[in-house]
């Protein structure tokens, strides 16, 4: 692998249908290790379906998905999470009646309870310390004892991001991290995502509708349309690709 970036995720020829709806057709995408990769496409183009297939939420009809070289397409969510790959959702999944610290602590799961990860076990003190450090990282330290349902939607998204980081993932799949967030807070979120990538070494694979955000964030972007891969390239290449422009203009 000299001089080349390894791919942490390799999707090859993946198809997935729901009954009569062909949501993904023969999709091949690489996610390079240590980078931020984007996934764009009009509504209903199959982005969330691909994420669900990668993290083991449902079986695929055909094709192959490799994580760090290992075939994972027959594994389910907890097995894949244990390998170090997690996702977040368009809607936040926090416990809104609990405070931020409690949400952070209960989000530590698989790694620490798995008999296979016995050496990764962290004691309560360590977990509390890590929760505080990550809440500081996302700018929520001052609000750590507030009931999380009282946070703004943008702050809840930051909390959910911090909760995912509690599991020390190798790869995080983020489904529209900026959706519903006040435009003035978006820059702060972009900055946090970049820092998680650079400082914590987390590879990010990001679905994003906001073009400005994804162009600013990702080194490489793939575009889906009608369940198929339309194009892959740098932000500049995609911005100037007539097929991508058409897919968006045609869809909106
Ligand atoms: N559980 C499901 N059952 C049946 N059809 C589904 C299911 N989930 C998605 N679909 C269909 O599969 C296609 C792809 O949907 P998907 O949610 O993957 O697209 P998307 O690009 O993530 O869309 P959006 O940007 O709106 O989130 C759509 O036609 C959708 O209606």
Automatic annotation (TrEMBL):
Limits of the ABC transporter domain: 9-251
GO molecular function: ATP binding; ATP hydrolysis activity
Pfam families cross-referenced by the UniProt entry: ABC_tran, BCA_ABC_TP_C
Highest taxon in the source lineage: Bacteria
Keywords, comma-separated and alphabetical: ATP-binding, Nucleotide-binding, Transport
GO cellular component: plasma membrane
SUPFAM superfamilies the UniProt entry points to: P-loop containing nucleoside triphosphate hydrolases
InterPro entries associated with the record: AAA+_ATPase, ABC_AA/LPS_Transport, ABC_transporter-like_ATP-bd, ABC_transporter-like_CS, BCA_ABC_TP_C, P-loop_NTPase
Name of this chain's protein: Branched-chain amino acid transport system ATP-binding protein
